[in-house]
DNA sequence: TTGAAAGCGCTAACAA
DNA sequence: TTGTTAGCGCTTTCAA
């Protein structure tokens, strides 16, 4: 008999249908080796009792959770939200659940989040631009299939999915150089691993183009960082001809600040962002930037992960191609 | 003995520490009634084996999952991402996990997501602007504590948290009316429940202000809807003096389209958004809009939910105050 | 303060 | 095709 108040169990359904619990289990999992008669009877009983299988119990018994842990920096940044959206879209198609956590760029906090994912025995881990060190990442990956995006990792048990950073940065610098820019300033993304790569590429490309090391201002991928960087530039009074911001958010903050200060873009200063989040396309910003296929990144990260879950052991490192999106914030270098 | 490959269980720790499994359980849950000697011994053993409790097993045995199911429309919309961010911040503070799903505005899809949350026996449900009908919502709420945001629900087992819609809309309309606007067009949010309320308030306020029913164009809360609405207005050639868009995204799309068509804002047409997402503050848009405290909404939704989980049974319906944020997209009505 | 034992609701051999 | 029987790893009485 079913006790009202307590949700019905498989046992209740079995009793109601007059069959064994195991048979109900088979039916619930859509096994083909159940007679139509019984299947119908079980389904009816389940319907009658409004039975729903308990995913926890199922997971415990089968040691599969159909759940993926996703670690993001923060949800407010549309860049990460878009990646999460891409993951979510495919996950829901395939019946996977998403356990979501944010690291807020603190390695310790990330460790906590990953640990709790591990506690939940998620089937896999997608770590988006994690700040954790390689040792921690490798440790996690040894117990659970793991894909890292936005950063390259050496550990053989970790798949990585990243943008071809040199390609994107080179596109920016050579585009700027082609328009006569020689004094190019880069506002960095700070201490994040992705930022480091971008910075390094910037330096290398500048040198290769014979433009010297380039000027730098430290940032942290936020709009606020852009505001501060722009203020610093204005205060210093020594304007570069072009600015390459670590991302669109930062570029937006800079543009805002420059415009408030009376500068015209691109007449007085050229500006390039990175990411191509949707605000970049707004006419009011019309920001020249580098497109990163974010939803595709999310989707492919999950694809790689599922391959791992299915048993692949060779490491995969996928590189996605960024594209320069030319809009209206870059002009010819002003003459000095 | 611990089998390498399999993660250690409580049993392994008990053996390693020379105590019973139940005692290990007590220690892991921080029970005070364990002698310091044993506690230390257990903790050491756990450390040695790198033991981590299995959350699934714990949930199954205790029938608490420490997990909250969060249903959003979609992650790409920063409005929802911000709410999710607010929820996540508090959840992580309190040791709760977030199971995340998106409904993409399809009731059937929402039902699927909610069902899978129920399958996981999450401790609570936060449904952000759900499209599901009240019967489905009430059904879910009967088995799991539920908070709905962005929409008012009658069911007594559901707490709701919403913006004081009439207040926000009234602020917009009376502000516009005060500047001499009489032909005000509203671009709606379509079939969403939130949109319906906003629309209804718009109509009521317009009538109350003696401005007639107001003109309407149907939208769906997207930027694209704004583009299309603006194009429709331009094609028709009959410009209202002011447009009140259902949200900032839509307003951004409209502004973009108007500007591309050579209109000046607010000289030729005034524009008001809703939400105050961060793009509204950018100088290049500087959109007059209505601020909705999104992160606070997320946070409070979780607070209400936790009260329910702790046993509160009286219904709570909280109303948050929106604020008109005056920027630069509204001017005096142009003379005809 | 500690331990023994009975579940939590399900899956997964294996037998029938 | 169906049922039986062990678990999955933990919590929770209840005794000791």
Automatic annotation (TrEMBL), chains A, B:
Gene3D superfamilies in UniProt: 3.40.50.2300, lambda repressor-like DNA-binding domains
A GO molecular function held by the record: transcription cis-regulatory region binding
Keywords: DNA-binding, Transcription, Transcription regulation
Occurrences of domain HTH lacI-type (ranges): 8-62
InterPro entries: HTH_LacI, LacI/GalR-like_sensor, Lambda_DNA-bd_dom_sf, Peripla_BP_I
Matches recorded under PANTHER family: HTH-TYPE TRANSCRIPTIONAL REGULATOR GALS (PTHR30146:SF109), LACI-RELATED TRANSCRIPTIONAL REPRESSOR (PTHR30146)
Name of the protein described by the UniProt record: LacI family transcriptional regulator
């Amino acid at each position: 008999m079913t006790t009202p108040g307590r949700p019905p169990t498989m046992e209740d359904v079995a009793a109601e249908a007059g069959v064994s619990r195991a048979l109900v289990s088979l039916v619930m999992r859509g096994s083909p080796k159940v007679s139509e008669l019984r299947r119908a009877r079980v389904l009816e009983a389940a319907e009658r009792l409004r039975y729903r299988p308990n995913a926890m119990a199922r997971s415990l018994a089968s040691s599969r959770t159909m759940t993926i842990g996703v670690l993001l920096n923060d949800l407010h940044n549309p860049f990460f939200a878009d990646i999460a959206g891409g993951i979510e879209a495919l996950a829901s198609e395939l019946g996977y659940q998403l356990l979501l956590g944010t690291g807020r760029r603190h390695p310790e906090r990330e460790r906590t989040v990953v640990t709790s994912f591990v506690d939940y025995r998620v089937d896999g881990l997608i770590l988006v631009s994690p700040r954790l060190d390689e040792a921690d990442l490798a440790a996690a990956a040894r117990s659970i299939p793991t894909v890292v995006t936005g950063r390259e990792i050496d550990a053989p048990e970790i798949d990585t999915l990243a943008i071809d950073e040199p390609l994107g940065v080179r596109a920016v610098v050579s585009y700027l150089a082609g328009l006569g820019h020689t004094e190019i300033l880069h506002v960095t993304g700070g201490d994040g691993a992705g930022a480091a790569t971008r910075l390094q590429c910037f330096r290398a490309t500048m040198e290769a183009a014979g433009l010297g090391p380039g000027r730098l201002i430290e940032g942290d991928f936020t709009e606020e960082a852009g505001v501060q960087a722009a203020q610093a530039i204005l205060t210093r009074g020594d304007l570069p001809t072009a600015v390459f911001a670590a991302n669109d958010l930062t570029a937006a903050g800079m543009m805002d600040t420059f415009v408030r200060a009376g500068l015209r873009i691109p007449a007085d200063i050229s500006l390039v962002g990175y990411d191509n989040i949707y605000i970049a396309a707004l006419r009011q910003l019309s920001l020249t930037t580098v497109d990163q296929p974010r939803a595709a990144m999310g989707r492919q990260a999950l694809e790689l992960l599922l391959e791992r879950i299915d048993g692949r052991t060779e490491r995969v490192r996928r590189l996605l191609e960024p594209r320069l999106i030319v809009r209206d914030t870059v002009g010819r270098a002003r003459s000095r």
